[in-house]
Specification:
The structure holds two protein chains of two kinds.
Chain A: H1 2-45, H2 51-64, H3 68-130, E1 141-142, E2 149-150
Chain B: E1 8-9, H1 10-17, H2 21-33, E2 37-41, H3 46-49, E3 55-59, H4 61-76, H5 79-82
Antiparallel strand pairs in B: 1-3, 2-3
Classes of the chains: A mainly alpha, B alpha+beta.
Chain lengths: 151, 85
Amino acid sequence: MALIAACLLFLVGILSATLTGLMTDEFKAWIPWIIQRIIRRSIGRLPQTQRKRFEEEWRSHVNEIPGEVGKLVVAFGFLSASSKMSANAGYARIAAVRIVKRGLDVFLSGISLVLLAPALVFIALAIRASGTGPVLVVRERLVHRTDSYLY
Amino acid sequence: MSPPQPGISGADIARATRLASGTLYPILFRLEQAGWVESRWETEEPRNLGRPRRRFYQITGVGASRARAAFQEVVSFSPEVLAWH
């Protein structure tokens, strides 16, 4: 009975040792692939013009790091580096979008003012013809926050 | 024989400054855009090297004088100002 238990324990010990070894080998084999994936993902976040340069630069940086785990840590760093570096580009994009929006506002409202001008003149004349009151409404209005008057 | 390389690589700077890659590269990127540092590729072709080329950074004249001025400014602060932290 004790012999069987001992044999079983021995077998389990050998099995788990091999499995752990296999797992470690497997993980080590995957690390370069994982690093490549992380770098590629980091590069994808950069502005188009910077991608080629940093892809080569970061690969060479990883190349200069001796251990596998160290390489992995550095690669994860690239991920956060690229998101910071693209954040600047992001602000520029938002600024550009604002300028375009403002331009569209001015352009479209200008065009519609010109196009509607005849109709507006006609409406003004119609109001003038229909009664005695003024065409434009002038009324006092209280502006809550500044307590100043607006017409 | 390869000619002496101009400047030091990002990996070298990371080692020297003890900055993580996620902190270092945004800084280098901004400094380069501001003209404080410049960088160029390793002169050898990657095909001959059998690995990706390193990129070497070098401080510019403008960068050096600006950095010196900024350092002087910090040094000139009174102890009370520096004690804020």
